[in-house]
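Render this sequence as a predicted structure.
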Amino acid sequence: MAALTLYTNPMSRGRIARWMLEEVGAPYEVTILDYQSGMKSPAYRAINPMGKVPALTHGDRVVTETAAICAYLADAFPEAKLAPPLDQRAAYYRWMFFAAGPLEGALTARGIGLVPPADKARQLGYGSIETTLDTLEAHLEASTFMAGDTFSAADIYGGSQLLYGMMFKTVDERPAFTAYKERLVQRPAFGRANSLDEAAAA
């Protein structure tokens, strides 16, 4: 089996990739990088020229971008059942990339205090933070998980956006969101990943 190595920092989106790896259940190694010398070093830039984490190597394969890492691992380890069958992936793809596009864009803008003018909303992939959160709220009121009744990699990525959004107050504490959060944090792999990252941060 090709070796898996996660390049991360416990105070980064690498926490999402760590959770995904814990759900997969395959052995993996972790390289912790600091934000200056580690991520900006020539050795790491050869893996990710952006100088950002997370990145994943699987043998000689390199995957960057957190949503891509989640999707890749779901396909690379089908026995973990973190992606629906190919002919049932419409909702899975829809909400995975909703989270990677509109949701992350809207939450990032709110987090840095960016309030685009109303007349520019149509130029934004998310339109407005209100529309984005209302859309996701309506979906989670009608669906147990992102892709339906079954937990998937879309919940690891999209759910993490909501979890961290609620933690940092960029997401309102709506009943549908808090109920969904409780379903996610009860997962053993979430607890393991969180404990490992908290220990690394300490």
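Summary. Helices lie at 14-24, 42-45, 66-76, 90-111, 129-142, 153-167, 175-185, 188-201. The beta strands are 4-8, 29-32, 55-58, 61-64.
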